[in-house]
Amino acid sequence: MARAAQLAAFAAFAATALWAASLAAEPAANGQTKPAANGRQAEPNGNGRLVGNGAGSGTMDEALIQAYQNNPQLNSQRSATRAIDENVPTALAGYRPRVSGTASLTDQYLDQLTRTTGTTAGIPATYTQAKGSIAVQSYGLTATQTLYNGFQTAGRTRQAEGQVFSARETLRTTEQTVLLSAATAYMNLLQTAAILELQRSNVNVLEVTLRQTRDRFTAGEVTRTDVAQAESRLSGGRSQLSLAESNYVTAQAQYLQVIGVPPPARLAPAPPVDRLSPRTLDGAIGRGRTEHPLITTAMYNVDVALQQVKIAEGALAPTLAAVGNLQKNFGSTQSLAVLETLQASIAAQLTVPIYQGGAEYAAIRQAKETLGQRRLDLDTARDQVQATVTQAWGQLDAAKAQIDATQSQVTAAEVALNGVREEARVGQRTTLDVLNAQQDLVNARVALVTAQRDRVVASYTVLAATGALSPQILGLKIEVYDPVVHYQQVRDAWGGVRAPDGR
């Protein structure tokens, strides 16, 4: 019972909230606001949005902020972006020297027989034998600096930077997806709660109708058929109520999944965000083709593929490196008489690839084919964005038209129901006529709630389709995640195993 009471309380509020949202979504042409559902004039708040009966409860902006902070998919993509940042210091390592140290300890047994030739004729040669064990310690230091490698290091650095930019645009795509999902989950919860209350009210009305029909049957005014019709319609209403309760619980679970926190007890109405989108379809398409992260990601992927071609071609160039070596030995594996030696050298090493099986040539051809593919992907992304913007724009126009149509439908259904009831009292209408009129009204109200939900979601969809669904554009009061901060922290790092956050 407590659970049912909680569902009923939230649903009743959501129904009022959605009605207020529809009023907020349709300002009059002369700039005046329409009255709220309770008959009072709605008042604009500080950011220009209309405040409905849900003021002080959970709002759309709060839900978007929580999703921006808590959504695991978005946080995962941020981690992936930070990981790709490390490609740049990895590429820059090609400009830096590589230093390695070696140490060895060798226990060796030597048995040497040395022949010494006499210096004067007639003096025979002498033989000297030395044998024994010796522990030889050796310590070395080698430094290598690449001087020229066909500009492969420069190409890898530019490629890594392109990968970083591409990852940031992918992060923008994820941000848009999460914010749109959050807005959709918010409106879905409002919608299902409002429909739940409508179905609950419908069941209450049908129960009253059934009681009245039974009373009239007892009085001999109607037949058993009328009672059966009322009972059948009540059973159908209860079935729809159970389905509405299930949809409401599902919407709550989706809200928790996307936004990361349980839904509040009440949700305030959410107005559409048309003011943030271009006024015309052509303007929306133009904005999407220049700002949408899918397109910018594809553009950076073209740059990455182009650098891969240059890197592959650089593998055919000679490599020049400076190599310095320092080695200190205590003892010798060649002689028991040597106590210690010190060796130092510096050399220039030139390596010219002549033929290595053709792998380098295959890599060049492969890189060029990949570059062609990335250019085609860019064309595909532009076409996809244009189609998405056009589709979202059409859905928004349809949602606006549906609100006008369903509002008229609700008004007409209310008038029809009242008329049918009055006619039924004087015997001009049957019980079935009353039940049908009641069902028509419920269907009209459900259609209106759905149109109100679609109206708001479609406005967010248009904003996402143009690539402008972001905390900055929405004006969310939150610290926006900046991927440049981590990039600057690791770009020029020469060492260290800890991440900038201390891990």
What does this structure look like?
A 4-stranded antiparallel beta sheet has the order 3-4-5-6, with no helix packed on it. Strands 1-2 form a two-stranded antiparallel ribbon. It is 61% helix and 14% strand. It is of the alpha+beta class and 503 residues long. β1 and β2 form a beta hairpin. It has helices at 2-25, 60-70, 72-85, 87-92, 152-218, 224-259, 281-291, 293-314, 359-425, 431-465, 471-474, 483-490; strands at 43-44, 50-51, 98-116, 126-148, 319-330, 340-351.
Describe what is shown at a glance.
This protein is α+β, with helices and mostly antiparallel strands.
Task: Name a few traits of the molecule.
two-stranded antiparallel sheet, 12 helices, alpha+beta, elongated, 6 strands, 14% strand, 503 residues
- The chain-level mean pLDDT equals 84
Structural class: alpha+beta
Unreliable sequence segments = 1-56
Spatial arrangement of strands, main beta sheet: 3-4-5-6
Strand content: 5-15%
- Helix proportion range: 55-70%
Order of helices and strands: HEEHHHEEHHHHEEHHHH
How does the SSE layout of this entry go?
Blueprint: H1 2-25, E1 43-44, E2 50-51, H2 60-70, H3 72-85, H4 87-92, E3 98-116, E4 126-148, H5 152-218, H6 224-259, H7 281-291, H8 293-314, E5 319-330, E6 340-351, H9 359-425, H10 431-465, H11 471-474, H12 483-490
Antiparallel strand pairs: 1-2, 3-4, 4-5, 5-6
